[in-house]
Amino acid sequence: MPYQSNNDLPLPIRSHLPPHAQDIYREAFNHSYAAHRGDPRQEEIGHRTAWAAVKRSYVKQGDRWIARSEPGL
What we know:
single chain; mainly alpha; Rna Polymerase Sigma Factor, Chain: A; two-stranded antiparallel ribbon; 3 helices; 11% strand; globular
């Protein structure tokens, strides 16, 4: 199911990702979900695509997700 806002994202995603990363996740998930309509793995593909999109812009250091554009990354 597509997510209308970041508040609709699963709790683990909202708890661990910063707001901008949540935006990236939500937008990537929604786009992938729509693109794979009718596929029985539609939701799984959406989540995998969303995580890949987040990992292009953020890196996990310890328990925190840090934007890759920050110095030292």
